[in-house]
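During the reporting period the student researcher (J.K.) took over the structure-prediction task from the postdoctoral fellow and processed the backlog of single-chain submissions. One of the processed entries is reproduced below for the supervisory committee.
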Amino acid sequence: MQKLQSGLVIEFYSNSCLVRTDIGDIKCLAIKNIVVGDRVNLELIQDSKEVKGIIISREQRSSFLEKREGIKSKAVAANISHVGILVTPEPVTSREFIDKWLLTAHSSKITPFIINNKTDLNHDYDYKRKLEIYKNLGIRIINLSAKNDVKMNELNKYLENKCVVFVGNSGAGKSTLTTKLTGKQIKTNVLSNNQGMHTTSISTLYELNRETKIIDSPGVRDLPISGLSESEIIQGFSEIYKSSQNCKFNDCNHVANDGCQVLSELMNGEITESRYNNFIKFRDGEVDD
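J.K. obtained the following structure tokens:
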């Protein structure tokens, strides 16, 4: 047995983790800044009759989700290619939630897509209009009902060769969806005041096959955006950023300046009001993290 091994972190606890290697899953002591999804190098040690490992280095990440508050940052999951934003008519998913995650995905260099879950429920005009906004922005939307196994094949096909994390409000069906895809029962705890369900505190990576992975981590439930710069925020609103390049003045605040192309396109409907309002709210720090 080779003493040095490389592998993938598939579970993370408070100060230890489980690493999947060619010789099996190895329990390891984690070094600083290791998260689920990381590819690591480890040294095997013999502890009584059990083989354990010590992580000695981490390979470069292709992407990562992180908590950024001011100058502080902490990664919570790594090497993610896509983030699936669960949108539901009940409980109602706000435009603010969607825009926040589109912004987070952009700043993390991760591709977002929308899962319109609970298609068995009634979709009123406002809900259909909400989905239309993001469809017009070029965001991929997959319609399904995880609970009723409706159109899950389309999602399975889309997930091929991707590493995905799902995000959604409590009650949006994230645990149900993950259970259906992985065949693993995702444990949940009931929240008070009918707030729905949330997953347990262990971060886990599930391999549907060697190339398709799902990360379930409590750390990505609600990432703050207070650590993002104004430049990062406007670039996360692609249509507003594109429009801003044609403003008359370089220091345009897109609120009350003459020659503002953003306001012009807002007035003629090329930029939607909810997207504009959320951009201003995020930029000016008026969102609750």
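The committee noted the following: Residues 189-200 have pLDDT under 50 and may be disordered.
J.K. will present the remaining backlog at the next meeting.
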